[in-house]
Amino acid sequence: MSVSAAEPPMLRALELARRAWGRTHPNPMVGAVITEGGRVVAEGFHEAAGGPHAEVAALRALGRRPAADAVLHVTLEPCCTHGRTPPCVEAIVSSGIRTVVVGARDPNPAHAGKGLNLLRQAGVAVVEGVLAEECADLNLIFNHWIVTRRPLMTLKVASTIDGLMVPAPGMPREVTGPEARADVHRWRRLFPAVAVSVDTLLADNPRLTARDEGPERCPTRFVLDRRFRSAGRSGLRLFSDHHRDRTVVVGLESELRAADAAWYESEGVRLWTLPRGPDEFLSRWSERCASEGVTGVLIEGGPRLSSALLDSGFVDMLFAYVAPKLGGDPAHGAWFGPSSLGLGDVKVIQLGKDVFFRGTVSRAF
The pTM is what? Predict the structure, then answer.
């Protein structure tokens, strides 16, 4: 089967996979399409962790023995080990499908290519790498987690061209336009957690929910507050809305007073108290996230936090929304720090008048 002929069904499989945007953690999003005679006859996608995988969903949707020329198109290499569900490789071989087209390989080094080899050993023809970049990019959080077992720490900034994140006095409050702001909500819907500093919490009183389309979704909402300055503050949405049980205040164990702990408990807000000194705060927070199964965090940083995160080397990925403006409020400084940093695997997208840069953070420039 030619790669060009396989691309339209794979594009459809990607569309199906995105229907589960943000709902499959810690599993990847996967879509599958079955064609016969070049025509789509069945579709499926992985809807949630613990549920049927995309390949099985598509085979069930077919509901019969596939035709001799049936082709299964799937965005990610079929699994070959037992998890919450049986291996998809076994289901494919048992179904009688003789050709499988795959987008991206399993990123787990222990599994990568193994499922494809098992299919070939069973006499199934395998075509690899169809829209591979798009299929891999779909699961940027899963890919990082499965390889490193650490959460993907992603810094999101919105600024003017000269790096200023706070509007000058008398200017509109929002730096970027509505298209860029809507895109932020889309990413909040994907990431299992969002984080802000206590400075941002007190200055902006954010909601940190996804309100782009469909029902409002609330990820885990972290407040990085080493000295628990937010204790006793009334009127903050993160402590008073109906998602407040999704709010976690992260601070140093040595800084927590009994009265403050009691106040947070009375508000229904969770606490993570971290040991040791402030120099290890971020690494200890990341370790706690990993132990709790938080696979990725979107950090919506202000100027000071953003500069500190980049300078410390803590950030894995950068999302930068840049507005075609100059002259924010210089009193707050620019978000980039003194270190020389570069981006790899860069994606650049026009969002209205703004430009969105996305890439992995590298010390090599």
Answer: 0.93
